[in-house]
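step: validate -> pass
step: tokenize input -> pass
step: predict -> running
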Amino acid sequence: MRTEIKNGLPIASAVIWQEAEQIALEAYQQFVDQLAEQLSAVAVWCVCRAGSTPACASVVRYRQGECCFDATTLKYLESEAWLPPRPEAFQVCQLDLISELTTYLCVYCEYHPRPAYLLVWSEQPLTPLQQFCMQQQAHLIAVLLQSCQATVQSSQLQLLQEVIQRIEHQLRNPLALVGIYTDLLGQSLTCGEQRQQVQEIRETVADIANSLKQIRQYSRTARMRLQVQDIRQLLEESLSGLKPWIAGKQLEVAYPDVALAVEMDTWQMKQVFHNLLNNAIYFSPPGGTVTCRWDDFQREILIEICDQGTGLSDFDLKEIFKPFYSRRSGGTGLGLAIAQQIIHQHQGRIWADNLPQGGAQFCISLPRSQ
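step: predict -> pass
step: emit ->
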């Protein structure tokens, strides 16, 4: 088996994912070997992706046992500059990549943020039956990918829930006592300065209580109540509570005047929108623009929320969805972790990257139906 990690990045850093990754890659290799034999192919690539980065693993099979492409051709193929802009999933299409070979592409994951796909090179054009075999292998690989991701997400959530519940239990009762004693102390004081200090303690207790509420919320896996919801309407409802803040920073929020109906848990997805918009507003400079977009693919919809802030560091990109990691002073670091959990429950994906012109972009991919 020849497995390559592009961009110098691992598929994921968690031990749980590494174990699942190894099992998945071995299964991918079996699919690739089987397909290569069925088609008498010169070469077969299976490019698979996971996580929130553009990193990918390529499981390959060459008829001669080693790479049959020269260095220039290989570099071009790995650049993925040749990929069609919106390839349709599970449809075999012929590409003109190498003059002496016939090339076939079959995408099995449309947007991640780049597609995952099978590539086959053969000396002769594939027959309809051979193309059907390629489609079937793509379907099997897609099922394997979904199963692997579900296993990882379930294991990670279970571990985090245990830790969070323990933290919440240890803090809840002492915090309640602090609140009670603060109220009693405030009733006995007459000095204005001291009463102000007591009020500051009350506000701090309230902030900690709110953080605990977020922790409890993150530790629960609520049952979803799915219904068809218009993305534009949900965005406008999420923005309504943020209008004073938006006005105070003199920001413009731009989004398309186009409805897009998606099946989702409205209450949970409103939390996702609120957290992403809250971040975008916080990091946007005064007078800047927060841009929201959505696009409809065959099997998925893509939602993007962009700001004009300073962007994300390499460390941010690795850590940003982890619980308790925050770029904001005093932040709980749970907003984006909660958003990720909700998106995963919807069988979707969420990731972040930097815009070429500056600023950060958060992307959500949701299936057309649950």
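step: describe -> The chain has two domains: 2-153, 224-370.
step: cleanup -> pass
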